[in-house]
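We treat protein structure as text, and this decision shapes the records that our systems exchange. Because each token names a local backbone shape, the row as a whole describes the fold. An entry from our holdings is shown next, in its original layout:
>
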Amino acid sequence: MPVAIITGASKGLGRALGAALAERGWDLVLDARTADVLDDTAKELSVYGTRVEALPGDVTDAGHRAGLVAAARGLGGVDLLVNNASALGAEPLVRLDELPLSGLRRALEVNVVAALGLVQEALPLLRASAAGAVIAVSSDAGAEAYETWGGYGASKAALDQLSAVLAEEEPGLRVWAVDPGDMGTDLYAAAVPDDDDPRPEPARAVPAFLRLLDERPASGRYGATSLLEGR
């Protein structure tokens, strides 16, 4: 069975993608910071009959990252790494003139530094896979300028560039940065708590990720909306 590591997997997009992969027979290593919620998610995904390992922790912790990869190795390797865990830098979001530098550092640590650290940890197993792939969950805030989204957007822009360089350096892998589009997640609610406009469920974007895995297009940056067109 193929094996995927998914960070930020207890809720939202990470959980929805994990469910879709489990239904397809993937074994999973799931990460999130809240142990009880992650355990509940793992139990729910186990109904598909695949092996699901839940490791609560913070992706900025090198020991935790090593534990995630070790768990995947125990399941047979790493065929897919999904860097989905994200930090906003401020909750709710604020303008750059009010953004705490500690918050910006946290966003960069979670969204960029930890993502690279996990890639580095998993690279030997990804290279050994017949179809190794890395997915970096990006954002339109990394490509467009939106008021109050500066710190988060800067971290996602950095993640996009990191992914592009990784693709050049690792031509044997597929490396996709994916903008999932608007989603009704806890992260968005924390970012803009006064926004009452309903957002699509994260599961709406999952077929876009599955299309990448099925068709394996060239490494690059993709938007879920364009991937879903014609489907």
Observations:
- The chain has one domain: 3-221.
- The chain has a mean pLDDT of 97.
- The radius of gyration is 16 Å.
